[in-house]
Write a structure and sequence with these properties.
binds zinc ion; Cytidine Deaminase, domain 2; 4 helices; globular; alpha+beta; 5-stranded mixed sheet
């Protein structure tokens, strides 16, 4: 049985994943590490498009990787972002990154009320939320608790 990772270790994996970011437009390199209930970690980075609108976030890359591997139960996700070049558009080194609205919606649909670990751009654990705190009264097609 694999040892459950600490929040710090999960953030470290998100930081590592951010190194693969494809972010020529924003220079904002984001990484995510999504933990499945069985302990498997799926990582993702942001992938930008020249069209801008087709850009996909690190959280959704990690989520779609996991879902496509058949994973359906999740516990936590860590999110880290770092702006290279220091234009300062995404705040200071102590800023905590949370997922965007689109990611919150998709994660709630497919992961339920997981823990979201927002890292500082210095790579430390910044804040831990429940996903329903970040997306209260969410739009869902059915009640995820009762299956109705
Ligand atoms: Zn997002």
């Amino acid at each position: 049985m694999t040892q459950r990772k600490t929040n710090e270790e999960l953030v470290a994996l998100a930081v590592e994943a951010s190194r693969n970011a494809v972010a020529p437009h924003s220079n904002f390199h984001v990484g995510a590490a999504l933990e499945a209930a069985n302990g498997t970690i799926y990582t993702g980075c942001n992938v930008e498009s020249d069209s801008y609108g087709l850009t996909i976030c690190a959280e959704r890359v990690a989520l779609t990787k996991a879902l496509s591997e058949g994973e359906r139960k999740f516990t936590r996700i860590a999110v880290f972002g770092e702006e290279l070049g220091g234009a300062g558009r995404f705040g200071s080194a102590s800023n905590v990154l949370g997922p965007c609205g689109a990611c919150r919606q998709l994660m709630l649909e497919h992961c339920g009320d997981i823990e979201v670990i927002g890292a500082t751009s210095g790579g430390e654990v910044g804040q831990v939320w429940q996903l329903t705190e970040l997306l209260p009264d969410a739009f869902l097609s059915r009640n995820r608790e009762t299956g109705e």
